[in-house]
Amino acid sequence: MSRQSGFTLLELVIAIAIFALLGLASWRLFDSVVRTQQGAGQHEREIRALQRAVGVIERDAWQAVAGSIELAPGRLQLQRSHWSNPLDQPRSEQQTVNYRLEGTVLWRDSRGEGPVIVQQQKLLEEVRSLSWRVFDPERGWHGETVRGNAPLALELVVSAGRFQQIRRVLLLPGSLP
């Protein structure tokens, strides 16, 4: 009598079940890695947008003309001078820069001297709250336009995206000896 070699049906079912469990575990691991990577990518995009917006505000604040800062709820206006042209040479004219919160978007409007052309730039989206304060040596931190002495620092507190309260203190011209 010849004996046939091979696998029994039970052995095949057990082997298929083991491979199915291994495949399911591998798929879940792959799925969690992809989701983590997507979350990290979104976080990175949000933090870069916030850094870019704060960098623009910091550049404008550093070039602000003494005594030109005006504050209002959700709004900052200043005059800046000696900003660079496309050839990276300083300009002599002044530029009015206005930051405003419209809905959940922070906008930057700039207007130079001469022909009135307002350039609008969307700085940051998903802004939940925004506040500005200045530091005056006589009154300390306050949220009102300074008359007389030029403020030494500008404080920005913003909540945007997944970030709760980001506080940045920006030194103004004339604050360093």
Question: What this model shows, in words?
Answer:
Pfam families: N_methyl, T2SSJ. By secondary structure, this protein is α+β, with helices and mostly antiparallel strands. Helix content is 31%, strand content 36%. It is built from one helix and nine strands, in the order H-E-E-E-E-E-E-E-E-E. Strand 3 (94-102) and strand 4 form a beta hairpin. The longest helix is centred in the first third of the chain and has 54 residues, at 9-62.
User: What's the shape?
Assistant: elongated
Could you give the distance between the termini?
Answer: 106 Å
Q: What is the makeup of the main sheet?
A: 5 strands, antiparallel
Mean pLDDT: 85
Poorly predicted regions are none
Topology:
Blueprint: H1 9-62, E1 70-72, E2 75-81, E3 94-102, E4 105-112, E5 118-124, E6 127-136, E7 140-142, E8 153-160, E9 163-171
Antiparallel strand pairs: 1-2, 2-3, 3-4, 4-5, 6-7, 6-8, 8-9
